[in-house]
Design a protein that fits this description.
With about 500 residues, this protein is α+β, with helices and mostly antiparallel strands. It has 13 helices and 10 strands. The longest helix is centred in the C-terminal third of the chain and has 17 residues. The radius of gyration is 26 Å and the shape is globular. The relative contact order is 0.13. The chain binds NADPH dihydro-nicotinamide-adenine-dinucleotide phosphate.
Amino acid sequence: MKDKKKLTTASGRSYYENEDSLTVGPRGPVLLQDYYLQEKNAHFNRERIPERVVHAKGSGAFGTFTVTNDITKYTKAKLFSKVGNKCRVFVRFSTVGGEKGSADTERDPRGFAVKFYTEEGNWDLVGNNTPVFFIKDSKKFPDFIHTQKRDPKTNLKSPTMMWDYWSLNPESLHQVMILFSDRGTPDGYRHMNGYGSHTFSMINDKNERIWVKFHFKTRQGNKTLNAAQAEELKGKDPDYAQRDLVESIEKGNFPKWTLKIQVMTNEQAKTFKWNPFDITKVWPHAEYPLIEAGVMELNEVPKNYFANVEQAAFAPAHTVNGIGLSPDKMLQGRIFAYPDAHRYRLGANYEQIPVNRPVTEVSHHQRDGFMNVDGNGGDSPNYFPNSFDNIEADKSYKEPPLPLDSNIADIYDRNENDDDHYTQAGALFRVVMNDMEKQNTISNIVGGMSGITGPKRDEIIQRQLNHFYKADKELAEKIARGLGFNFKPD
Ligand code: NDP
């Protein structure tokens, strides 16, 4: 065969044997000098990198984002400077709580992380398929995630831990309602929306800031699995969502999402009923309508899963000029947490891995560290200021200062609606859900809460039912009936 390739060691030496180890005579012991034997097995022992603590099971694809509407009055980001502008994207979908080999159809939020390779650097929108989240302060994140993982003694998933935590942390209610609706078990990754979830900002060419929420609306239509279908697929095809995504793209059936934004001025933010930077709340569409911005199409399955999907590293801190952050406490925590996780999982030079590398040139004075593979700045200076490299920190990229309402650091200075965990959760149930969705949500919650066991069972159920009751009386009463629990609101 003319295209035959010679087997080599990793250092490039041609090697003569790939299966039989070198021995002293045909039956003798193995010789240490069979270097390829050692290299092959030693590398195999090092194939696994630390699993992501959350979002471990995921699927990814490359694609294209195209700007379809003029939003230049809100942002000076070059990506959005002209209708028709395009950039390459990489998207990673995931479940949250399960391990790398867990089933794709678990009831769980789905990660929806998009990396836009723009000419001004990478912009990562690292959200979920839900517009809200369980907690509004990242200080709570390790506690919350522990409840979604395994019991320290039994090593089993524990509905008792989950509902104990949710009942003691009622700001989770809105997200719990979404999780236990059928949107908590989407039919693969193509049939779900994605949300930036946090409030972000945009800055225009007049240096004016506006607050923004991002929504990716699926063009395939929302499709969900009911509890029985999701349960069955866990056994039949644990990789259901991965299979669906890969097969659909390979067939040329490219999934698409419309990117829409909601915008809020600083004046509107001051009079908004809730804290606009609270990730447990949405901005009602009627007051803050969706504005189209672009369309995203996924059209390329990465040639190698580990190289691209496993090594993909997204960070909410990765914004571009014209797109900024906000005082959302959860977002502020994630600015630290994501790059920190990547430095642990992939090393200090994780941005040099091809899937993470920006398409634009990078110029800074960070050098050395494990796995430095991009030339390490060559012979250019590794200090600043210097007389040689002409790298300047361009002040025109500075964002306008953010006026603050208060200069007193006091976490307990709260607004009256900060503890309203109920209005939006109730609206979802009463106004948005049809009868079938209501029924399924109730039965999914009953199924979930039936797993609560142990001496605190009744206390946990009573506490959680009180939260449901404050959102909607009928909801709480029907769940109590389903559980056979004698509920009297406190
Ligand atoms: P609207 O009546 O204008 O829209 C309802 C929204 O809810 C739609 O975006 C719909 O998505 C989405 N939706 C439908 N079923 C579910 C579900 N089971 N879980 C999560 N989302 C669902 O809503 P409002 O803006 O007036 O808000 C009412 C409630 O709708 C909110 O309290 C919130 O729970 C929910 N919601 C609101 C969003 C927002 O940004 N305003 C975003 C998502 C949910 P689709 O159009 O794709 O079917």
